[in-house]
Amino acid sequence: MADELERPGENGESQDPAAHLPAPSIWPFGFALGVALVLVALIISSWVIVAIGAILALVFGFLWIRAATREVRATPPPEPAALTADVEEEEGEEDDGEPRLSRSLFLEGATLGIGAAIGGIVTLPSVGFMVLPAFLDQEYEQIDLGPLESYPRDQWVVAKFRGTQAQPDGVARRTAYIRYNGQQDGTPSFTILSNRCVHLGCPVQPQGLTDEEAQMIETEAGGVELFKMAPSGFGCPCHGGAYDIEGNRTAGPPVRALDRYKYSIHNGRLRLDEPYSVGKVKGTGSDAQIAAYDLVDPGQHVDGPEQFFYPYVP
Ligand code: FES
């Protein structure tokens, strides 16, 4: 019975197996490049690159699908009359007049589909963990740092306190350097510096004498320890970063001035609000002109041409 079937080639078709393989194409590489761009851009939070990657992935994906299905689209449905009774009997197929999917095309589609499913299962969770935090608003705690009388005018103090979030003690401990600058336009003026080095985040230390004995203040969030100090500046023990008394970088690898905290006064008590980043501080104390920016990570420039090398962070 098989001998009675028409063989490929007998009617002019090629018998070369390579003839049934899809032609080499650059579309999959372009598609992969687009997807890779999207993933990288999501990690660095650059929406421009996300858009470019998405467009590349869509265009190359479309071209890839178009190339992969060219054979199906170009092949007319087989004529029911061309199917011999023997073939129908052997394959158990019914002649319903519908175009039939070739086995190679089915296998190709199944392989791609299973590959995509496995890739998604493996990739999505890790990408989610990397990308999602960037879209979640970070809550900043407001922390009571005690009555204003605890902060003598022009006196620097190290304030050690605990954050209000439920965290282990070692994680929740915070430090800020605080100086009361006196009244400005009828309201108390404070300079409150973060102790986070803006190179890589090590804790900076005051350069100068610090009292060993702490003044303890009880607050709702727990105890606040205040140590008087007389710093000439601040230094970072990790890579030698140095800052002057207003937090401006003076030496080493840090890229901007020390971050500061906003603050507010409630019922005669100093309250620490959200932190912000600083490009440069001109002047001192209550007369300081502060180039303030939204808080960014250590190592990021906030001004000058270098700022354009850093992506927007939501
Ligand atoms: S982390 Fe401070 S200088 Fe590197």
Written account of the structure:
- This protein has helices spanning 27-44, 47-68, 70-74, 85-91, 103-135, 169-172; strands at 143-147, 156-162, 173-184, 187-194, 205-210, 215-219, 222-235, 242-243, 249-251, 257-266, 269-282, 289-293.
- It is α+β, with helices and mostly antiparallel strands.
- The protein folds into two domains: 2-100, no CATH class; 143-309, Rieske Iron-sulfur Protein.
- Strands 2, 3, 4, 5, 6, 7, 8 and 9 form an eight-stranded antiparallel β-sheet that branches. Strands 1, 10, 11 and 12 form a four-stranded antiparallel β-sheet that branches.
- β6 (215-219) and β7 (222-235) form a beta hairpin.
Could you give a quick summary of the protein structure above?
The chain has 314 residues and is an alpha+beta fold. It is 28% helix and 29% strand.
Name the CATH superfamily assignment of the largest domain. Rieske [2Fe-2S] iron-sulphur domain
Provide the β-strand percentage band: 25-35%
Low-confidence stretches: 1-10, 87-94
What is the number of domains?
2
CATH architecture of the largest domain: 3-layer Sandwich
Bound molecules: FE2/S2 (inorganic) cluster
Report the top-level CATH class of the largest domain: Mainly Beta
- Helix/strand-derived category reads alpha+beta
Q: Can you give the helix content as a percent range?
A: 25-40%
Overall radius of gyration? 34 Å
The largest sheet, given as strand count, sense and whether it forms a barrel, is: 8 strands, antiparallel
